[in-house]
């Protein structure tokens, strides 16, 4: 993104204007979009370099890199929009390796005809999320596709972070006996999107939990630097994420239904929509697996953090050659909690 | 991307299968796509970690980060396809800051119904380009959008690299008196795409010049560590890129039409299509601006490299408060070479 200001014949019409093919041409119209919207909103010393990439200070420690495309529909939803979601989602993927997120790159695929006012609102939301998280958007790219070949806006963000010595968080480190914790209520994001899509008029609007979790991760690492696994249960929800970890670590898991934190409104909406909250996406929650001996301290640290107030210890890692995730139901039975099969919630993030 | 192998009921049908919404669900179908296509093709130790991000060795020196969305249409063209283009494009953005590219992240937005055989061909091309360049794809993401809300496949790649001490390449370092070099013939990529789109049946097929330029950059830095500016003239072509640099450095430029390297077939196609080759995209060429004293040595190093055989010294940086790029035409006149206005070549990369 070039950020050197220049005078254009007319300022960008951020109120009534629309994206057209020239905004992706590489020419003057694109330069104007970058100058008057992206560079202004994301402003920082790296973006101001005005090159096709950013030159950044040497990063301390081991590097972490994560990328996520965001295609959520609708673009605006209770509790957030595609802009802040794109910032939070990638920051969280970086943080789930125990890293401190340092920088973000953002790439936009815009559809011809998309209102510039909506784009401006989304970019403002991204910029605000990045500022709040302390993770600047240092470089970017914009492409435009013809009407009917995109869907408003898709945003891919990529994050880079650094990991302190001694931290070895990874999905393959769950061990039998480890405690399984979750940082808060399940399914809020997915239900917020689905309620909107299905036009459900609930008395209580469920808001997306979209949030950047790196501060919470830092708080947990402060009490236990040797956390075994961190992962955010996004697409596929808690059930699929636990199955992923079980497979990766070569273990089984046993969780207790009665301990799963769930908002009443989410529970009611899931019933109405025919969804199982175990499979519904979260965008501001994490699963933490750690040695049983440190579970109480880690849980206390979670609950002391604003994003972990509803945290709970939900189960235990067990020995299981078949890597099943099982659940003790509220009625005292036991059932297998399988991977998500099929597509329950398309374009949830 | 999770890369832990598991048995699926049936292997992915890479011959006759198609992308469906479940491939973006986060569930079992997505895990299978990742396992059987992405992880297999891009295989490397970082991807094999199987987390939502990659944990990488400490990067030496200052960091560089660049990102590019690729929406080229058609997806396959003479000389390449969206896959290798996505690898080359981002490697080049990293290299244009004088950096050694180290890692790539890849994010895919797939359209429901897209043939898996085409996807496999594209992924194979990406993997081969990454291998040839020595820059592994260490992490990725896949999303699926409904039919009619995407266009086959969009690929965003993000690159990270590191810059050696003493290298200070940037678009704001062009100084009056500096030499302007270009590494080879102009407009090959844009003409390759446009000929295909317009279904021109040329006797000579023009191939895209898509290539990774970091090896060439290393060869140039070896003879002159203090290169002032490097930039690849992609969208908007040579003309727009020179205008960007002129604006960023606060200088003017004077180039000579007679010195611009141009294939005859490209020249002929441009005439037929009504295109000015100065504005046509390149994907394997770079502009280099350096002190006049080192221009001969840098030009010789370019010509000694397989990707710089047709390199030429095309002009000089001059003092100009209006930051105009001017060209001495083949007929001895002088004209202003403006920014690209409007959209000459939609979805060229």
UniProtKB/TrEMBL annotation, chains A, B:
TM annotation in the entry: none
Gene3D superfamilies membership: PurM-like C-terminal domain, PurM-like, N-terminal domain
Residue ranges of every copy of the PurM-like N-terminal domain listed in the record: 50-163
Domain PurM-like C-terminal: 175-326
GO terms, biological process: protein maturation
Superkingdom, natural source: Bacteria
Record family assignment: Belongs to the HypE family.
Protein name: Hydrogenase expression/formation protein HypE
Protein source organism: Rhodocyclus tenuis (Rhodospirillum tenue)
Lineage: Bacteria, Pseudomonadati, Pseudomonadota, Betaproteobacteria, Rhodocyclales
